[in-house]
Amino acid sequence: MKTAVAILNWNGLSLLKQFLPSVVSNTPNDIDIYIIDNGSSDDSIDFVKRNFNNIKIIDLEMNYGYAHGYNLAIKKIDADIICLLNNDVEVSANWTYPILELFKLEENTAIIQPKLLDYNNKNMFDYAGAAGGFLDKFGYPYCRGRIHNAIEKDIGQYDDISKIFWACGACFFIRKEVFDLAKGFDSDFWAHMEEIDLCWRVQNLGYDVKYHYKSKVYHLNGGTLNKGNHKKTYLNFRNQLYMLTKNYKDNLFVLLFFKFFIDLIVSVFYLLTKGIKHSLAIFTGYISFYKRLTHLIGLRKKLNRKIKHYSTYSIIFYFIGLKRLKKV
């Protein structure tokens, strides 16, 4: 299987200097490495050209965001398997081998996520993806190894190869044929949760999403957009509504009714803990969602919604610190 690693970059010169050497040194020579540059205004491209002659560059003329940036670039990549890798990820020795072996063994597996650990504290799981993602009964994402801000230490509790509901966009491998079949990411998302939307649609096509513990990578998290940035809050809440409207199998409007009141509670919690910008970001996310609702309903009608997100738990009580969630 011809394989490529595709790293999306936007003004990430300092991150490329820090993390690209590990990718180059730990990736086999027969795997092509691409830098996809989203119209950077810094010295990113010149740095790569000066220091890494074997890396291929796809130079986009403007910042298309995560979703559309990858959509444009993947069309230009000749490979059977593509790893989508953030520019703030350090990879370990032999990181590609377990993933590619699993693809060879399981033709129905379309997406595989490695174990994501915290770059700054390497015995802890990473916030973004940890040991694979799931959705609770109201569509809120969480991971094995991380629920809201409660992050677990890696003591081997998720040392398995298992089905997950979604793979983290910081690092996952996908069959290009399936990416094309699913028509790639939804560009309306721009960034955040587009990978959950893609994983959901891929499963609706009959494929599996897996996690493989023997491949380890270390994610800085928030290298491009920090967790403290209220724009991240806006994108997360808006895109969650986008994703659920398109893919939720059961009665959508009952779900949206309950989610509105839950998010109202969350907005008060954010006001008290994160400040008014994050609280207002939830409401601006809703405004943007309602403006696009007719369009999203149209997409929903076109999708074959076979897969129900299969967690029966709600993380909202855990979120506000009242109750622990049972492990998957």
What does this structure look like?
By secondary structure, the protein is of the alpha/beta class. It has 2 domains: 3-219, Spore Coat Polysaccharide Biosynthesis Protein SpsA, Chain A (Alpha-Beta Complex); 230-319, no CATH class. Helices cover 39% and strands 22% of the residues. It has 11 helices and 14 strands. It has helices spanning 13-26, 44-51, 65-74, 97-105, 176-181, 194-204, 230-247, 252-273, 276-291, 293-302, 316-319; strands spanning 3-9, 32-38, 56-60, 81-86, 89-91, 109-118, 121-125, 133-135, 141-143, 146-147, 150-151, 161-163, 171-175, 208-219. Strands 1, 2, 3, 4, 5, 6, 7, 12, 13 and 14 form a 10-stranded mixed β-sheet that branches. Strands 8-9 form a two-stranded antiparallel ribbon. The longest helix has 22 residues, at 252-273. The radius of gyration is 19 Å and the shape is globular.
Element-level helix/strand string: EHEHEHEEHEEEEEEEEHHEHHHHH
Q: Give the number of helices.
A: 11
Q: Main β-sheet: number of strands, strand sense, barrel status? A: 10 strands, mixed
Which regions contain 5 or more consecutive residues with pLDDT less than 50? Answer: 322-328
Average predicted confidence as pLDDT: 93
**C-alpha termini separation:** 33 Å
Broad structural category: alpha/beta
Specify the CATH class of the largest domain: Alpha Beta
| Backbone CA Rg | 19 Å
Share of β-strand residues: 15-25%
Oligomer: single chain
What is the 3D form? globular
Count of beta strands: 14
Annotated CATH topology of the largest domain: Spore Coat Polysaccharide Biosynthesis Protein SpsA, Chain A
**CATH architectural name of the largest domain:** Alpha-Beta Complex
Q: What's the name of the CATH homologous superfamily of the largest domain?
A: Spore Coat Polysaccharide Biosynthesis Protein SpsA, Chain A
| Total domain modules | 2
Helix content: 25-40%
